[in-house]
Design goal:
The complex is a heterodimer. Chain A is built from 17 helices and 21 strands. Chain A is of the alpha/beta class. Among the domains of chain A are: about 265-400, Succinate dehydrogenase/fumarate reductase flavoprotein, catalytic domain (Flavocytochrome C3, Chain A, domain 1, Alpha-Beta Complex), CATH 3.90.700.10; about 475-595, Methane Monooxygenase Hydroxylase, Chain G, domain 1. Chain B is an alpha+beta fold. Chain B folds into two domains: about 5-110, Beta-grasp domain (Ubiquitin-like (UB roll)), CATH 3.10.20; about 115-250, Alpha-helical ferredoxin (Fumarate Reductase Iron-sulfur Protein, Chain B, domain 2, Orthogonal Bundle), CATH 1.10.1060.10. Chain B is built from eight helices and seven strands. Chain B has a five-stranded mixed sheet with strand order 2-1-5-3-4. In chain B, a hairpin with an 8-residue loop joins β1 (about 5-10) and β2 (about 20-25). Chain B is elongated, with a radius of gyration of 21 Å. The relative contact order of chain B is 0.13. The mean pLDDT of chain B is about 95. The chains are: A alpha/beta, B alpha+beta. At the A-B interface, α3, α5, α6, α11 and α12 of A face α1, α2 and α3 of B. Bound molecules: flavin-adenine dinucleotide (FAD) and FE2/S2 (inorganic) cluster. Flavin-adenine dinucleotide binds near residues 63 and 191 of chain A.
Chain lengths: ~625, ~260
């Protein structure tokens, strides 16, 4: 297979305009004749479903939560980037583009990133119009903060609940369309498979999570906005239900999966406290604006933090990266924290933690200012740890947070299956090997509000789509397969719970395909994961029956997919003999421990093609070209 | 830490439920309440019993999925905290706890501790939005919004739609939820054009959904994990009155 990114020609700043002009349009009266399935109601899916319905398409939208408003986007804390240059600090579309390509360690498509930076400006306007209560200055203008990997202040925020407010904006737009009968909403419904007829995506197989009924929904095109796959690691900052099932099953129907090994470890999360732990909690990166990160200078120093004098503290990020200091990108901050802990300088009971200290800011700004900026995050920290961060420094440690990899899409956001579009975290498109903070919300909304509505129209206008019915043999086959595999999971009736398999998988992936990877470790993982998968299919115990509300069964299906995806992640990481962004191979580093890319050989997108169960997947490469931002060794010093 | 748990078990909406008791021997103070239930569920599955169903997702107190009664208090004993953020260090060895789902006609039980809150969505669909189709927006800084207004709008917008307010209210009223959305949008300049009609429609739908009236008892505010203030109900009532007056006088709900 050859991959065509369909990147438009012309100067980068004109490409999106050219593309929009060249794309075919569906005339307003005809839009009513088309139906579109949108799976996902997060920032990407929610904004897409609302906008498509506004345009006149018939939309069916699906989510597994009890209401679209609870999609995982709700949990995003810190903010959303936009190149508004309201602060007059030298920001521009070009600078946001530049920062994102560089932050992604030169592994993203320039054209896509430029478009994202262009659209960022419209997103904030759209959200303000919807009533998103962004933070304001006393004069009534919008306020900004800084995020890692940038030297300008371009992040818009609503306290520490930016994702919540943006999602409620999208949800309100979606609700208006549901109320007006233009979107048929299916909450508590999980997509189990993609229906492909004559090579085109024409529908999905879904399971009603309350009744257990498995059904078919057909349409003229399918959009997946189903989020990331960070939960492969079991412990992650993602919501418990976040899963890869929709994209993975689409992958098995022919959509290529790109860069699965590019996962992001977030530097500031609350450390793990015990083996019953069910998830990890992020402390927003925005805290690095005012918090200083440090560990004791000397190994094994077990004194409480306020007993350690300034001269015996190591503010290692400020020391090593004087120009970015505590605001280096996430991959750099995470790796440095890991190194300090590996050296025996970690803090807290487990030694897997570093301090994030606000003492100086509290002194400089006053406690009330710190409370206004981060109050809810401080409360959350206190609730979980029982410690008061106004008095003692927070303890933080890196945790898996975001997945840059995802289904491969071209410039039109279309996957390798015609008629299947993928948006938001579920695709691989814009962040290369490392995502900058506050850029995921931006991407989800750019895709959903501003890009997909154009590109989907082009697909519908340029293809003649025959009517299909649920009697089609491909529909029947997909339906049958979904119910057989559900029954199979229930019939195993082995000895181990789904969670116990999931935890074990997570540990393997964290140890071997986490913050630092080696060829040897990855080869080991490639033995362990298939073995675990085999055991899963013969020894898992899933409670309950198929036709009822059955959370144990839901989890089992998701973990079955993680067990396959986890293997592909390791495979991809092993194949990429270089370090870039979040993918750090210990064998490939500079003398001072920074990621060492190999542009000669690895300046490509690695897209994987499914070849059948237990068959090796085939690697297809999309070469990357850099015409504007020339690849260099990233330096934040 | 050892606990005795009495949990409401109900297989489906149509079947009858009952309290079932469990001895929980393996809790510890670092766990969250839901992690303690995870441990219980692992044990139940191991024994071949049906695990306890409860809604949850983010486990960070923001998605609003989780929530049930612990000893008659929505989200349990700590104020300003969702169940997923409640930690076992607030309980002690030997405690006996009664766990029950939200109880309200408008929230039918789905299974065990999980309920159907889709009535909340229908209230929002009736008017909990600003009509602003994608692509029509003016520059974000074109309208200056006083910091104080935007902060107050944010206080109301912090609602997570968990339903604790309904569960705590003797009238099963959805006024805190509805008032929070009406206040969030009504405090902002963008929300003015539709303000009256919005209140009118949302309040009417809340009644049709069988939520009760507010009689100012204040239980909702006490259990709200996001500390939404009763003030939002006063705002709702005011906007509703204005809306009904304008509607009756023929100038339409909207526009006001
Ligand atoms: C704790 C946290 C904080 C973050 N903070 C920030 C931040 O400050 N700034 C930033 O830019 N980014 C942040 N991110 C990242 C960002 O929140 C996500 O990348 C983004 O919200 C993803 O949006 P999405 O619409 O692609 O997917 P999601 O919001 O994950 O939505 C997925 C949707 O798909 C549905 N779904 C999934 N699978 C299925 C299925 N099989 N069947 C049916 N429906 C399905 C779900 O129900 C849901 O509606 C944060 C992430 C986390 C975890
Ligand atoms: S699980 Fe999301 S608020 Fe509790």
């Amino acid at each position: 297979m050859r991959l065509d990114s369909k990147t438009p020609s012309g100067p980068v700043e004109k490409r999106w305009d050219n593309c929009k002009f060249e794309n075919k349009l569906v005339n307003p009266a005809n839009k009513r004749k088309y139906s579109v399935i949108v799976v996902g109601s997060g920032l990407a899916g929610g904004s897409a479903a609302a906008t498509l319905a506004e345009l006149g398409y018939n939309v069916k939208c699906f989510c597994f939560q009890d209401t679209p408003r609870r999609a995982h986007s709700i949990a995003a804390q810190g903010g959303i980037n936009a190149a508004k240059n309201y602060q007059n600090d030298g920001d521009s579309i070009y600078r946001l583009f530049y920062d994102t390509v560089k932050g992604g360690d030169f592994r993203a498509r320039e054209s896509n990133v430029y478009r994202l930076a262009q659209i960022s400006v419209n997103i904030v306007d759209q959200c303000v119009a919807q009533g998103v209560p962004f933070a304001r200055e006393y004069g009534g203008t919008l306020a900004n903060r800084s995020f890692g990997g940038a030297q300008v202040s371009r992040t818009f925020y609503a306290r520490g609940q930016t994702g919540q407010q943006l999602l409620l904006g999208a949800y309100s737009a979606l609700s208006r369309q549901i109320g007006e009968g233009r979107v048929e909403m299916h909450p508590r419904t999980e997509m189990l498979d993609l229906i492909v007829i004559d090579g085109k995506a024409r529908g999905i197989v879904s399971r009603n999570l309350i009744s257990g009924q498995i059904e078919i929904h057909l349409a003229d095109a399918v959009v997946l906005g189903t989020g990331g796959y960070g939960n492969v690691f079991y412990l992650s900052t993602n919501a418990k239900g976040s899963n890869a099932t929709a994209i993975w099953r689409a992958h098995k129907r022919g959509a290529l999966f790109a860069n699965p090994c590019y996962t992001q470890i977030h530097p500031t999360c609350i450390p793990v406290s015990g083996d019953y732990q069910s998830k990890l909690t992020l402390m927003s990166e925005s805290l690095r604006n005012d918090g200083r990160i440090w560990v004791p200078l000397n190994k094994g120093d077990k004194r409480v933090p306020d007993q350690i004098p300034e001269s015996e503290r190591d503010y290692y990020l400020e020391r090593r990266y004087p120009s970015f200091g505590n605001l280096v990108p996430r991959d750099v901050a995470s790796r440095n924290a890991k190194n300090c802990c590996d050296e025996g300088r970690g803090v807290g009971e487990t030694g897997l933690g570093v301090y994030l200290d606000f003492a100086e800011s509290i002194q400089r700004l006053g406690q009330h200012v710190v409370r206004e900026r981060y109050g809810n995050l401080f409360e959350m920290y206190e609730r979980i740890t029982g410690e008061d961060p106004y008095k003692v420094p927070m303890r933080i440690y890196p945790a898996i947070h975001y997945t840059m990899g995802g289904l491969w899409v071209d410039y039109q956001l279309q996957s390798t299956i015609p008629g299947l579009f993928v948006i938001g975290e579920a695709n691989f498109s814009d962040h290369g090997a490392n995502r900058l903070g506050a850029s995921a919300l931006m991407q989800g909304l750019a895709d959903g509000y501003f890009i997909l509505p154009y590109t989907l129209g082009n697909y519908l206008a340029s293809n003649k789509l025959e009517k299909v019915s649920t009697d089609h043999p491909d529909c029947k086959q997909a339906l049958e397969q979904a119910s057989v595999s559900t029954k199979k999971l229930l019939a195993i009736n082995g000895k181990r719970t789904v969670d116990s398999f999931h935890r074990e998988l997570g540990k393997i992936i964290w140890d071997h395909c986490g913050m630092a990877r080696t060829g040897e470790g990855l080869r080991e993982a490639l033995q362990q994961v298939p073995a675990l998968r085999q055991e899963f299919w013969s020894n898992v115990k899933v409670a309950g029956g198929p036709e009822e509300f059955n959370q144990s069964l839901e989890k089992a299906g998701r973990v079955a997919d993680f067990l396959e995806l986890g293997e592909l992640m390791c495979r991809d990481a092993l194949e990429r003999n270089e370090s870039c962004g979040g993918h750090f191979r210990e064998e490939y580093q500079t003398p001072d421990g920074e990621a060492l890319r190999n542009d000669e050989e690895y300046s490509y997108v690695a897209a994987w093609e499914w070849k059948g169960p237990n068959q090796a997947q085939e690697l297809v490469k999309e070469p990357l070209n850099f015409e504007y931002v020339h690849p260099s060794q990233r330096s934040y010093k | 830490m050892k606990l005795t748990l009495h949990i409401w078990r109900q297989r489906s909406t149509s079947e009858k439920g009952r309290m079932v008791s469990y001895e929980m021997a393996d809790a510890n103070e670092h766990m969250s309440f839901l992690e303690m239930l995870d441990v219980l569920n692992e044990q139940l599955i191991g024994r071949g019993d049906d695990p306890v169903a409860f809604d949850h997702d983010c486990r960070e107190g923001i998605c609003g999925s989780c929530g049930f009664m612990i000893n008659g208090i929505a989200h349990g004993p700590r104020s300003g905290t969702t169940i997923c953020q409640l930690h076992m260090r607030h309980f002690k060895n030997g405690d006996e706890l009664w766990l029950e789902p939200w109880r309200a006609t408008a929230f039918p039980i789905v299974k065990d501790l999980a309920v159907n809150r889709s009535a909340f969505d229908r209230i929002i669909q009736a008017g909990g939005y600003i009509t602003t189709p994608t692509g029509n927006a003016i520059d974000g800084n074109a309208i200056a919004i006083p910091k104080e207004d935007s902060e107050r709008a944010m206080d109301a917008a912090a609602c997570i739609g968990c339903g604790a307010c309904v569960a705590a209210c003797p009238n099963a009223s959805a006024s805190l939820f509805t008032g929070a959305k009406i206040s969030h949008l009504g405090l902002l300049p963008q929300g003015q054009p539709e303000r009256n009609g919005r209140a009118l429609r949302m309040v009417q739908i809340a009644q049709e959904e069988t939520f009760g009236n507010c009689t100012n008892i204040g239980e909702c505010e006490a259990v709200c994990p996001k500390n939404i203030s009763l003030e939002v109900i006063a705002r709702m009532n005011r906007d509703f009155l204005r809306g009904s007056f304008l509607w009756r006088s023929g100038s339409g709900g909207d526009g006001g």
